[in-house]
Design brief:
The chain is mainly alpha-helical. It contains eight helices and three strands; from the N terminus they run ααβαββααααα.
Length: 192
């Protein structure tokens, strides 16, 4: 988001508090989201998680926890992400990676932030992962997008940057059309 809004380096000065480290199972646990929404300190709650192979089920579980405070939530998650406000001016937003419409993960979203000029290297990285799998690499099919991304990142300068650092150093393109849809959702939700 630093590429799109003023975002200080100091975490305590960020315009949005971001809680990381919770698994989708923890977030989707019955009562977790509704408890957060009922908290007087929480005015806006954004929920982001990977679809993995359960996109519709994940949105349905989030929706069910929000319905008492947000009765007008749509049955299906909008492709542009969900932003809703209730009569008490509380806001809730939902973004399910990679694009609110596909099964997958944040690594699939980040794949589309690979700059066009790096596509030949990206192609070689994915071919290398496929070849490693043929040779017996124990990577699960569900982790192939992560293996592709981290293989490509291993060949950048400097090698092996985390996706977050790769974004701040513009190794990944924070201004790609794919990023624009997510940025619009985030800015709308948090009124930035």
């Amino acid at each position: 988001m630093r590429a799109h809004v003023q975002w200080p380096e100091q975490v305590d000065q960020a315009p949005v508090y971001i809680e990381i480290g919770k698994s989708a199972d923890e977030i989707l646990q019955i009562g977790y989201i509704s408890t957060k929404l009922k908290d007087r300190e929480v005015q806006t709650l954004g929920i982001m998680l990977d679809a993995d192979t359960k996109l519709k089920g994940r949105y349905e579980r989030i929706r069910n926890q929000c319905l008492t405070l947000f009765p007008a939530l749509p049955k299906d998650l909008p492709v542009s992400g969900l932003v809703a406000e209730n009569l008490e001016q509380k806001r809730v937003g939902v973004w399910i990676m990679p694009d609110n419409a596909s099964e997958g993960s944040i690594e699939m979203f980040l794949r589309y932030l690979v700059p066009n000029e790096s596509e030949p290297v990206w192609k070689h990285a994915t071919e290398s992962v496929a070849r490693a799998l043929e040779m017996g690499a124990p990577c699960r099919n569900s982790h192939i997008p992560k293996a592709n991304l981290y293989t490509w990142l291993a060949w950048q300068d400097p090698p092996g940057q985390s996706p977050g650092i790769a974004l701040t150093k513009k190794i990944l393109d924070p201004h790609s059309p794919t990023a624009d849809v997510f940025v619009h959702w985030f800015r709308t939700l948090y009124e930035l």
